[in-house]
Write a structure and sequence with these properties.
InterPro entries: FAD/NAD-bd_sf (IPR036188), FAD/NAD-binding_dom (IPR023753), FAD/NAD-linked_Rdtase_dimer_sf (IPR016156), Pyr_nuc-diS_OxRdtase (IPR001100), Pyr_nucl-diS_OxRdtase_dimer (IPR004099), Pyr_OxRdtase_I_AS (IPR012999). By secondary structure, the protein is of the alpha/beta class. The protein is built from 15 helices and 23 strands. The chain has three domains: 151 residues, FAD/NAD(P)-binding domain, CATH 3.50.50; 114 residues, FAD/NAD(P)-binding domain, CATH 3.50.50; 116 residues, Enolase-like, domain 1, CATH 3.30.390.30. 34% of the residues lie in helices and 24% in strands.
C-alpha cells in the first residue's frame, strides 16, 4: 500500500543516513540543539556495535571469563581445577539479554521522543541536494552518511561458498562449535578465539600475516604465548587452501612457509577485515567521491559535496565505535556551531579485549622513531605491581614512548583491565599534560593502575638520583640543623 502513495516532501536542517553509533550520536546532538532532524535506518537501530559488534562480543567474553575462573581458582586454594559445564544456549540468552537491556537507548521511540523524524527505509541520493527514502523525498541543509561497514570474506577460492560465520551471524549460535576455524588474526579474531576456547571449543586460527599487526612486538609476543598456553592453535604467515564442506563440517589445508597441515573444523568464522557500506546509495548522483576504503573526506569530515558529511567506519578512517562518537562531535561543532573543527588522531586509543587486555594510545615505538628519530622508552612490568602479585596476574607491562624532554608520544599497556587504565594516557597526550604530573599524583594502593605512576617516575629516576642531586642533598644536610 505504501508504495502507491505519492511522494511526500520533507525539509530539515540535518538528514542522517544510518542509525549506528555515529548516526545516533549526531542525530541526538543536533536535535537537542534545536535542529530539525530526519534519521533514516533500514535495519536495526543501534547498528553494528549494539547488535553484532561491541556489545555481543564483550558479553560473550564476559561469559568466557566466568568459565575460565573454574580452571584458575586452584591457584588461590579454592576448589579444584575442573572443566565448567557450559550451557551454550544460556550463553546465547545472556548475550541477547544484554543487547535487549541497551536497545531502548538506541530505539526509535527514544529518538522520536527527542523530536527526530525516524524513517525505516533505504535511502538513496537522487541529486546533490535531495534523497529518497520510501515514499519520502528529503532535502536538508546538511546530510550525514553514517552507514558503517561490514565483514568481508577474503578471496580464498571456495571460502565464500561455505557460508562462513561473521560477526553478523556468530552471536546467533545456540550450539557451541566443536572446532572453530577462524580466518583472520586481528583483534576481533583473537577475541573470539580466546572466548570460544574458554567456553570449550577447539580453536584454530590462520592469518596470512602476523597477529595484531598494529601493536607493539612485545605485546604481540606476550599474547601469542598466552593464547598458545590456553590451547589455541595459531598459524601465522599462512594460507588457507581449498576449504570445502565435508562429513565433519569443513575441511581445508593450511600452508605455511615450511609445511602443510590438513584440518577439519565444525565451523568457520571470518574475521579478516571490513568494507565500508557505500553501495546503492546514489553517491555518484550526490557528487560524493568514494573508493575501496570508503568515502573520501577532508579533515572536517566533509565529502566532495560540502553539504554532505561522512562519519564512522564509512569515512575510511579508524574503525572503532569511540571514533564514530568522536566523529559525531566533530560534525556537531562544524554544522551546528560553525566551528572549523578537524579530526585529530594523535591520542587515538584502542583496546583488544583479550585476557590480558592490550591497550594502546598514540604512537608505537616504531612510528615514533620514524617520525621523531631518537626516543626514550620506559618499560615497567606488572610483576613489580603489588596488586598484580596478590591476584596472581603478573603477566604484562606498561611501555611509554617519550621524547628526550619527557613529552609522551605513545603508551601501551598489557594487563588485566588495561583498557580501564589507558584513558589517563589519552588525556596526557591530548591535554599536553606533563609527565611530572603523573609521577607526582597520589595513586591508591594497591591498584593495577599504580603501574602508570611507577612508569612516569622511572623516567625521572636518572635525574633525581644522579650526581648533582646527591651533591645538593649532601650540602643541605650539612646546612640544616
Amino acid at each position: 500500500m505504501q508504495a502507491n502513495l505519492p511522494p511526500e516532501s520533507l525539509s530539515c536542517d540535518v538528514c542522517i543516513i544510518g542509525g549506528g553509533s555515529a548516526g545516533l550520536s549526531a542525530a541526538a546532538g543536533a536535535a537537542q540543539l534545536g535542529a530539525r532532524v530526519v534519521l533514516i535506518e533500514r535495519g536495526a537501530m543501534g547498528g553494528d556495535c549494539l547488535n553484532t559488534g561491541c556489545v555481543p562480543s564483550k558479553s560473550l567474553i564476559a561469559a568466557a571469563h566466568a568459565a575460565h575462573v573454574f580452571t584458575s581458582a586452584m591457584a588461590f586454594g579454592v576448589g579444584e581445577a575442573i572443566a565448567p559445564k557450559i550451557d551454550f544456549e544460556a550463553v546465547h540468552r545472556h548475550i541477547h539479554q544484554v543487547i535487549g537491556a541497551i536497545a531502548p537507548h538506541d530505539s526509535v521511540e527514544r529518538f522520536e521522543g527527542l523530536g527526530i523524524k525516524v524513517i525505516k527505509e533505504t535511502a538513496r541520493f537522487i541529486s546533490p541536494a535531495e534523497l529518497a527514502a520510501g515514499h519520502y523525498r528529503i532535502t536538508a541543509r546538511r546530510f550525514v552518511i553514517a552507514t558503517g561497514s561490514r565483514a568481508v570474506v577474503p578471496p580464498v577460492p571456495g571460502l565464500g561458498e561455505l557460508g562462513p560465520l561473521t560477526n553478523e551471524s556468530v552471536f546467533d549460535l545456540i550450539e557451541r562449535p566443536d572446532h572453530l576455524l577462524i580466518v583472520g588474526g586481528g583483534p576481533i579474531g583473537l577475541e573470539m578465539a580466546q572466548a570460544f576456547r574458554r567456553l570449550g571449543s577447539d580453536v584454530t586460527m590462520v592469518d596470512v600475516a602476523g597477529i595484531l599487526p598494529r601493536d607493539e612486538p612485545e605485546a604481540v609476543e606476550l599474547i601469542r604465548g598466552a593464547l598458545h598456553d590456553e590451547g589455541i592453535v595459531l598459524y601465522e604467515h599462512a594460507k588457507l587452501i581449498d576449504p570445502k564442506k565435508g562429513e565433519m563440517g569443513v575441511s581445508a589445508t593450511i600452508e605455511t612457509a615450511t609445511d602443510r597441515y590438513e584440518i577439519t573444523a565444525s565451523h568457520v568464522l571470518v574475521a579478516a577485515g571490513r568494507k565500508a557500506n557505500v553501495e546503492d546509495m546514489g553517491l555518484e548522483l550526490a557528487g560524493v567521491k568514494f573508493g575501496p576504503k570508503g568515502i573520501e573526506v577532508d579533515g572536517r569530515l566533509r565529502t566532495s559535496n560540502p553539504r554532505i558529511f561522512a562519519l564512522g567506519d564509512v569515512a575510511g578512517g579508524p574503525q572503532f565505535t569511540h571514533i564514530a562518537g568522536y566523529h559525531a562531535g566533530i560534525f556537531i561543532r562544524n554544522a551546528m556551531f560553525g566551528l572549523p573543527a578537524k579530526v585529530d588522531y594523535s591520542a587515538l586509543p584502542w583496546v583488544t579485549y583479550l585476557d590480558p587486555e592490550v591497550a594502546h594510545v598514540g604512537l608505537t615505538e616504531a612510528e615514533a622513531r620514524k617520525a621523531q628519530g631518537e626516543v626514550v622508552v620506559v618499560v615497567e612490568h606488572m610483576e613489580e605491581n603489588d596488586r598484580a602479585q596478590a591476584e596472581r596476574r603478573t603477566e604484562g607491562f606498561i611501555k611509554l614512548i617519550l621524547t628526550s624532554k619527557g613529552k609522551v608520544l605513545g603508551v601501551t599497556i598489557v594487563a588485566p583491565h588495561a583498557g580501564e587504565m589507558i584513558s589517563l594516557w589519552g588525556l596526557v597526550i591530548s591535554g599536553k599534560v606533563k609527565l611530572s604530573a603523573v609521577a607526582s599524583m597520589v595513586a591508591p594502593y594497591p591498584t593495577l593502575a599504580e603501574i602508570s605512576k611507577r612508569a612516569a617516575s622511572a623516567y625521572f629516576k636518572p635525574k633525581l638520583f644522579g650526581r648533582l642531586p646527591k651533591a645538593w642533598v649532601g650540602l643541605v644536610q650539612k646546612i640544616l640543623p
